[in-house]
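Lab meeting, item 3. Inverse folding demo.
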């Protein structure tokens, strides 16, 4: 089964039409323990089956893969080596899927042989004093060797963190890495170009390697595996970009274990914008009703090493259906709608445990945070790999924030955790350090071009293709990029000194831009008929919803804010076609108001524009926040108009402590969290037991 992205509306993707915002012109133990409940899903427990002739079978399987179409040990193509300074995320995801498939096979081979080669890396005691080791097996070692070799062959400088290698515990003697590696060329060739389209346009192009980190766990749940568990074992690969999990793969080698006539194993994969694939569950599968309409169903670890879990579960009124020490399996249970939340209220997991699952949950509208609701940063930092502040994951964002608020109240009398932990991987909140206005934030205004909407195809490529169609063969993507930027900065919709860009449908401005591109900055001579034909073609292209990509999470974030009483207003320099475009994208009912320059006669960064936004929201400017990608038109303009805060839409922090965001749900988190601290709005009442005073 495929679970579509929560923001399924983002299937409308594409480029430009009337926006004055910035446009991208750059180049390209026993089994699972279940609580007894008539409503609880029943999970069967299977003992491991004994196998003989292990080594011979493993060797035969490896030889088979060396010569099969999955064949191993092929070098990456010369093209990929030449592009080693960049990485193509969809291709990297396809490689990770192939690695997980191969990892599943290796784990089954080792298990079949019966010689697990268990080592204890050093464990700790539970609350009752029982020592629990930290196991590593031959399967961990072999899968990690394959993972590291395959990924390094694809991109030698890839920022890769793998569990056993990082912990210096994966010494493998006598293993031929070439035998274990995945054929990159085969893996890349198995992809479908349509799979890539859901990714943000930026990720469909090669991006700098230093923006990407890959976190790998060769066998999650090793203690359970060594004790006989099979179904809950997983292979985890998570891809983070700019510190945010964007794509993930969970291999489950023993899915359907013990079930006759069912294929053994599966690979679940997906990411932000592309949904989740490979779950193999009923198409109509739904989660148990959310509190208060049903009990809060949770997954927890088997081993309890702190005094917080019991009082938290009691305060939440939770029903524990899944008890197993396997984080990847917890995420699968959430994705399968068999639980609402997974809780690990202590230091235990690491980034390689959570990155893949968080990417998949984000893809379906879920959330992963620390114990008290702070998001983790997955930027490459070897000093910030442990999730020191615990882990909480949920299917529903609103429920999650109320749940973590209750957790904060419950654990406060038990100690200062996690606030006494120096955790370098806690992500700075978007509005940290910003004074909250009296009464809280009551409006968020959102820039459209380059923020809410992004062209799905590079503008330069569209212009060059259109130029060729109308007979201007000398226009290339390179010249189109140069000339478009030049024209966009220089021209207005009339010759008046104080002219705006957009009047009416914007053709008085766009015709000048298009003519400048077709004539290669005025060096060629093109007749008016040709220019008019190009204008018509480009207008038709950019009026179609497929030309635009909607930022992931934008719709969910707007709905969360509006439910809490925060108005959300679109604020854009755009021509008169904007309302129609929003309607074709299905966005017209998702915002409280739309303010655009062609309609009101002024444009950003003028104070008059932002005052019009505040009036449309019926909120004082000081209680308004604005987010947009342009430093002058958005940030400086909103500040000048007296807005309480202006947030720069960018994946990269600025050098001057300017608030930045590149995740609409994270921005909504910040606004709602600030309002909760002031008790500006009453808390939702999802949980049957109120938090303690």
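The presenter then showed the designed sequence:
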């Amino acid at each position: 089964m495929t679970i579509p992205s929560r923001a399924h509306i983002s299937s409308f993707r594409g480029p430009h039409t009337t926006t004055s915002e910035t446009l991208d012109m750059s180049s390209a133990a026993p089994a699972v323990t279940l609580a007894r409940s008539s409503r609880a899903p029943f999970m069967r427990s299977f003992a491991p089956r004994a196998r003989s002739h292990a080594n011979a079978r493993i060797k035969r399987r490896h030889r088979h893969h060396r010569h099969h179409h999955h064949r191993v040990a092929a070098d990456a193509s010369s093209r990929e080596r030449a592009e080693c300074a960049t990485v193509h995320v969809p291709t990297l995801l396809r490689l990770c899927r192939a690695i997980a498939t191969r990892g599943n096979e290796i784990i089954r081979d080792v298990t079949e042989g019966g010689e697990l080669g268990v080592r204890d890396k050093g464990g700790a005691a539970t609350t009752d004093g029982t020592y629990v080791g930290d196991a590593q097996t031959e399967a961990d070692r072999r899968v990690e060797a394959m993972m590291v070799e395959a990924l390094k062959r694809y991109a030698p400088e890839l920022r890769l963190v793998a569990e056993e290698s990082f912990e210096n515990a994966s010494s493998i003697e006598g293993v031929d890495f070439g035998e274990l590696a995945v054929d990159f060329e085969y893996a890349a060739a198995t992809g479908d170009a349509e799979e890539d389209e859901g990714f943000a346009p930026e990720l469909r192009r090669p991006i700098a390697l230093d923006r990407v980190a890959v976190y790998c766990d060769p066998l999650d749940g090793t203690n359970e595996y060594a004790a006989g568990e099979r179904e809950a074992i997983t292979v985890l690969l998570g891809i983070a970009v700019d510190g945010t999990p964007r794509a993930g793969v969970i291999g489950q080698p023993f899915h359907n274990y013990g079930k006759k006539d069912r294929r053994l194993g599966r690979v679940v994969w997906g990411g932000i914008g592309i949904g989740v694939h490979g779950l193999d569950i009923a198409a109509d599968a739904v989660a148990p009703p959310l509190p208060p309409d049903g009990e809060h169903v949770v997954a927890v670890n088997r081993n309890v090493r702190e005094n917080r879990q019991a009082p938290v579960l009691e305060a939440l009124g939770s029903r524990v259906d899944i008890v197993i020490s396997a984080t990847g399996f917890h995420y699968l249970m959430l994705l399968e709608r068999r639980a609402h939340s997974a809780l690990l209220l202590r230091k235990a997991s690491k980034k390689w445990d959570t990155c893949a699952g968080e990417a998949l949950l984000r893809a379906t509208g879920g959330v992963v945070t620390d114990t008290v609701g702070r998001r983790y940063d997955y930027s490459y930092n070897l000093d910030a790999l442990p999730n020191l502040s615990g882990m909480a994951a949920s299917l529903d964002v609103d429920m999650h924030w109320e749940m973590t608020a209750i957790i904060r109240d419950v654990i406060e009398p038990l100690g200062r955790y996690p606030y006494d932990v120096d955790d370098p991987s806690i992500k700075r909140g978007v509005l940290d350090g910003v004074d909250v206005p009296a009464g809280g934030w009551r409006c968020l205004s959102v820039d459209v071009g380059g923020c809410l909407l992004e062209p799905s195809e590079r503008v330069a490529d569209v212009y060059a293709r259109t130029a060729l169609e109308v007979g201007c063969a000398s226009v290339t993507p390179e010249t189109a990029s140069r000339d478009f930027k030049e024209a966009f900065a220089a021209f207005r919709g009339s010759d008046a000194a104080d002219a705006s860009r957009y009047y009416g449908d914007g053709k008085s401005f766009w015709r000048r831009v298009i003519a400048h591109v077709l004539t290669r900055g005025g060096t060629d001579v093109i007749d008016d008929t040709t220019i008019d034909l190009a204008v018509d073609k480009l207008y038709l292209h950019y009026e179609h919803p497929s030309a635009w990509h909607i930022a992931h999470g934008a719709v969910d974030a707007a709905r969360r804010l509006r439910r809490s009483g925060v108005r959300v207003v679109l604020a854009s320099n755009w021509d008169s076609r904007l309302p129609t475009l929003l309607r074709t994208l299905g966005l017209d009912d998702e915002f409280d108001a739309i303010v655009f320059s062609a309609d009101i006669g002024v444009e950003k960064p003028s104070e008059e524009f932002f005052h019009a936004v505040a009036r449309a929201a019926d909120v004082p400017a000081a209680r308004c926040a604005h987010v947009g990608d342009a430093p002058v038109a958005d940030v400086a303009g909103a500040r000048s108009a007296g807005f309480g805060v202006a947030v720069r839409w960018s994946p990269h922090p600025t050098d001057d402590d300017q608030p930045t965001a590149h995740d609409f749900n994270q921005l909504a988190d910040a606004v709602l969290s600030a309002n909760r601290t002031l008790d500006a709005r009453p808390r939702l009442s999802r949980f049957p037991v109120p938090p303690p005073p």
